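Q: Protein A?
A:
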Amino acid sequence: MEWRQLLSTKRSRGTSGRRGAGSDLRSEFEKDYQRIIGSASFRRLQDKTQVFPLDKSDFIRTRLTHSLEVSSFAKSLGQNIGENILAYHRDAGFTPRMKEDICNILQCAGLLHDIGNPPFGHFGEVEIREWFERKLPALKFRGRPIADILTEQMKQDLYHFEGNAQALRLVTKLHFLVDDNGMNLTYALLGTIIKYPVSSLQADGHSADIKDRKMGYYYADKEIFEDIQRETGTKGKRHPLAFILEAADDIAYKTADIEDAFVKGFISYNRLREELRELQMLYRQEGAGAFYPADKLEELYLIGKDRHVDNPEEFAVKNWIVRVQGFLLNCATYGFTSNYEAIMNGMYRHDLFYHTFAEKLTDLLGDFAFREVFTSDAIYRMEVSESAMIDYLMEKFVSAAIKYDDSTQKLGTIESRMIWFISDNYKNAYHRQARGKTEEEKLYLRLLLVTDYICGMTDSYAKRLYQELNAMI
């Protein structure tokens, strides 16, 4: 892979590819940024869960604030890595303009990386997957089991439903700007948000290669996926910028989950310090002296006490988060630059923290949040409620969608109402994609019509619609 091709400015609808044409001085990637922030899909992230659904606090992060943080970290990593490539002459074809383009692409990719997620965070993804696993074998179309009608990839798409694949679908097909090309973003940006360049048939959650662990596109979007791969030259490999985007996401959520959990009272200063002391003992045994997390936390606590702040523990945790983020940015930069050739050859199989000083710290932060927050009574109670909402909406909309646009079946009164609820934007996208397709493909697209609509819902809208349909007003 080489940067000239990886940074392709091509769009599905075409582009001039020229910077500063006429009075417009924006680069193609700066145009991408403004298309994203002006979209309704991006605005909806303000009411989608990061960790705590429908939280009343104005401090706790939403998908929108999380995406802004990822965007910021991704751009910073782009600056660090781009400067390193230039300073150490790692690539003779790499230019200062390419560094600038990389920063703009990563800034955009951070905004987009969660745009396909359904309501209620990653639990919403799991619930949609499990609904299809439970229900699809029993569903019928024209008297035949749907599982016997759909191709294996179509079925696996539903069983492996994935927010990353949905993001690609949303920005290339569902967001209606001028035509059926979605936001019509540059292929360099689209390549960057495809973290997993494999189909549902190839995805393997236990793979040693990080790019194979989830599906990256639906069968319905195979054509645009292959066009992006061909144009950027990735051809089944991960776009190098996808590694940077993933690291930025890891830095953002693994530190933010700890801060939000502290503010919500799930973890305390003392519990965090205990966990970090155990890790620090390992660091000392291994002779790793780059960053001692427990010492830094205690140092910040003492600074807070010396300054007579009202809550020195809160002062310590919040400032510690900032220090950790800086440390992780440095480690991710090292992870990319020290593995530069393998990444550019498509041979690198790990995340950017692998075999760095940050690897054990990021693992600990993720495990600590899981134990103290994600397996807590409060979160479990919320997830049971969210499950009931997602299950009900899937049941109602899928039963209607199976009969929709089928001349041999008549929609019932309630089923026709359910179809009416679906946005015209999504229905129009379905009809555009269904032209010339077989009945089997149309059925598959109607099932995606349901997931498209539900993924477009905010947490509040999903809850309100569930309550209204159940006469719970």
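Q: Protein B?
A:
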Amino acid sequence: MASASLATIIMLAMLSPSSMVPVAVAVLFLTTFAFVSPVGVLAAAIVSLPYFYRPLGMGSLEFAASEILLAAAVGGSALRVVMDTLRSDHPVGTLTVMVKSMTQSRLVLFLMLVTLAGAGTLLVVYDESARGASLREWRWTLLEPLLFLGLLTMVTRNGAVRPILAGSLIAAGMLAAIHGIVDLAGGGGVAADNIRRLSGPLPHPNALALFMLKPFVLLAALIAAIPELRRMLLLPTILTGFVLFGTFSRGAMIAAGFAVLLLAIDAPRRVRIALGSAAIVTAAAAAVVAGDRMGNLFEGGSVSLRVDIWSSAIAMIRDRPVLGFGPDQFLYAYVPRYIQPTAWDERFTSHAHNLLADSWIRLGIIGAIAAIVVVVFVARQIVNDRTDNIGRSALSKAATVALGATLVHGLIDNAYFGHDLAMSAWLLAWLAFEHSGQKDRRALQDA
């Protein structure tokens, strides 16, 4: 299944972005493949996430490979549902079971509620001329993740596929990491603060850091929890960690440091020493290699700009506390009405650099409540995982730590409102809270 998934990615990567015919043929092929193996196509969609900002052409339209693969998975799965229903002696009962498999999922119901709330905000967006941008972001960050999560819940009947899906996120991280290193070797990346920052296939180093944090922390948590996997996962962990460091994202470093500290608390002494040594070496290297950037925080630096943006975000929330401004509407209100004079250098920012403020401004009060619920739930699960070793697999706990690190990063940056970020976040949530079981350990070792 994994090789078939990778084959679909390679095929999509080789398609001409200027011709609709090969893309249409690929969609037909992938839909047929999804009829047989929907999980394989969903895994391929995750692997392709780092290339979301490099879409493929379908006539005058453009779609990312992850969207094409998701559409194929939906089509193939729908065809399978129709076939199973027609072959069943009790078609109504068959459909009822399938619907129940999704509606019994708290994750699906929660995301469905947020998606509906987001749809409501589309009717009252701040700038009606930019309603198309709002609809696009709603599709990318709510509707498509809902389809993805619903399919995961419906087509995965056992825990055997969980390592495959976790591996797809790790593969996506490695693919982006290799791309970033090759790009840097060729003189690519972004020059800033007297250093060159890795950006890889994503449009900005911070975007790469936000994505790379998830596979890196997931790998680090699995290595800390399962000794048998350390030799196999050591190289991917080093590779993703090196590229995460190479983005020189201070927010990502803080979030990774939080994850390392969390893992070290209950780890064996040897693991604590290894994690502590890695953290010290990383901090020292950052100070030596990127001293100007690490020190440029106040007096017009990153912290000062964040404070200015947060002040503007609070003013925006005060003006529209219930309805918000709508998805992807921050920029259209921020520059003309709310920007601080000292933040003019950041006038093109499209988000509030804080998960709670971002959710509130985009989705109104329901978005704010949803963000708080997520933070409280993940924090409580992290605490429970430290005291309860029964019933939760190492993979589930590792995914929860990765979610926790993502939320820490979300204190000072955009942790969710991008297609790649939203899809990978819900994959982690599914790994953390759905179909958790002790069989993951053996499945991981056999993968």
